[in-house]
Design a protein that fits this description.
The structure holds two protein chains of two kinds.
Chain A (H helix, E strand, L loop, with lengths): L4 E3 L2 E4 L5 E6 L6 E8 L3 E9 L2 E4 L8 E7 L2 E6 L8 E8 L5 E3 L3 E5 L1
Parallel strand pairs in A: 2-11
Antiparallel strand pairs in A: 1-3, 3-8, 4-5, 4-9, 5-6, 7-8, 9-10, 9-11
Chain B lengths: L2 E3 L4 E5 L4 E3 L2 E3 L5 E7 L5 E7 L5 E3 L5 E5 L4 E6 L8 E8 L5 E3 L3 E6 L1
Parallel strand pairs in B: 2-12
Antiparallel strand pairs in B: 1-4, 3-9, 5-6, 5-10, 7-8, 8-9, 10-11, 10-12
The chains are: A mainly beta, B mainly beta.
Amino acid sequence: DAGVIQSPRHEVTEMGQEVTLRCKPISGHNSLFWYRQTMMRGLELLIYFNNNVPIDDSGMPEDRFSAKMPNASFSTLKIQPSEPRDSAVYFCASAGDRNEQFFGPGTRLTVL
Amino acid sequence: AQSVTQPDIHITVSEGASLELRCNYSYGATPYLFWYVQSPGQGLQLLLKYFSGDTLVQGIKGFEAEFKRSQSSFNLRKPSVHWSDAAEYFCAVGAGDYKLSFGAGTTVTVRA
């Protein structure tokens, strides 16, 4: 298994631009998580899906952030418009059962 | 809601010496417990997990952890560290609702 796949690995954009991060979970996993990691705030859960349905989006910081999971093998996290304070590493993780989450390599986002 | 405390922000250890990282959790029932490792620029990798049964669990890379219910702890140990063990280590607790609560992490520096 290829593990959780995220793209792009690095993204540099200018303030105000739309950013879309992509994630392919491990086949057969029914839960998907988006996290954000910064030096100041550590690892934060943004949103998680179970069976493609958003269950808890209380960690999404603002309406500028949105996430979708149109099918079991793909999810996106969109930021529109992006701001410099959104600069962080964004991780996607998937889980089959018992909370055992497997993380992707992350996307390092820099907003200038 | 469950929570995790990692009391040590940073630990420095000599190569070949033993390592112990502390983790305390708060949860009313028996939790699912995990240790993850994150090398610089990488995603989180699962080291080991505890669901039930034997309270001493073995993981990858020579790590082990012991669940102590009376102390609400799940400390990570390695008898002899290698330079490649320099990384950040995260303890996490799950309660069966697909979410994990992560500790703030402990950074391990290995000196020659």
